[in-house]
Amino acid sequence: MSTQHEHYMAEALALARRGTGHVSPNPRVGCVLVKDEHIIGRGWHKAYGQAHAEVNALIDAGEAAAGSTAYVTLEPCAHHGQTPPCVNALINADVAQVVIAARDDNPKAEGGALLLQDAGISVTLGVREDEARFQNRAFFHHIATKRPWVVGKTASSLDGRISTRTGHSQWITGPSARRRGHDLRQAVDAIVVGAETLRKDNPTLTVRDRWNDVLASLEPAHPLRIIVSGTGDLPTDCHALNGSLPGKTLVATTEQMPVSQEKQLIENGTEVLRLPVNSVGKIDIPALLDALATRCQSILVEGGAQLLGAFVDARMIDEVWAFIAPKLIGGTSAPSSIGGLGIERLEESVTLNDVRYEFLEHDLLIRGLVDRRTSNEL
Asked: Is 131 a known active-site residue?
């Protein structure tokens, strides 16, 4: 593979990240136009419903785009959705070559590479493909499974505790780790917490101070807040339910929620979703994901331990972010980061691949993708 292709595609991938939190359900896409070994145009998809990366790069380049090479992180779309086909824009601009990182798996948008070739434009596929697919892993997963990509996040001590025996938990990790967590919030469509977390911590579940400079430069994109409560017994005066925060809130509950409670939540601007229960009387996690599939490509499960455990028990975690502080809490009554039923044998463990390590001052972030080959098809 040409090192020149690799270099310019890296530039395009960096541009694509600037759309984080603002383009879903579209993928993040970046594009650079190169002529005589100089970048003459840059573009990225900035917000859903607005111009795509290729069009923005062509506008940036102007008439100089003729005869150039376009490096784009995803196959240019061949259909008319919220915007006209990017394939037509590239053909009309008379670009000479298009280098593509990954094909578009969306049946509505695929086929752009073939149309470009039919128009006499040279096409190269697969440059930094793994990076491009990782960048849009939620998008590709949603197309393949029709369910959201699920990220499980924990923040614990070195011995796996999320609070002391008295319930004191703020703060186990430091400011840098918490800011890195806001990077993750920016990148997902929804944040999910359980009723106990809502009662104990009264979280806002909004995007605030972010760690990454690129994400910190973006306007906050506040994900949908989802509160999971089988009984619907929730404090309606808390931050997430009193109607005072930016963004939207949804309560996922069952038929156990009193109608009077549902009415009060709706009056505060909260959506209520009633779901079936599983064999142990808890909200059925697959049913929850199916209900969210039309509105979320990705969700972040932040806590608490029992809710995270329910997702693990249901084999519905796709990615893990584990923040670990160099502290020892101890105590058999201090809760661990993941509850639920758990496994019986070690070979049933959830195993991660593509594991990455980040040091955030004194804390450590371990993140990785669930290995479907070694985790009983988790």
From this structure: no
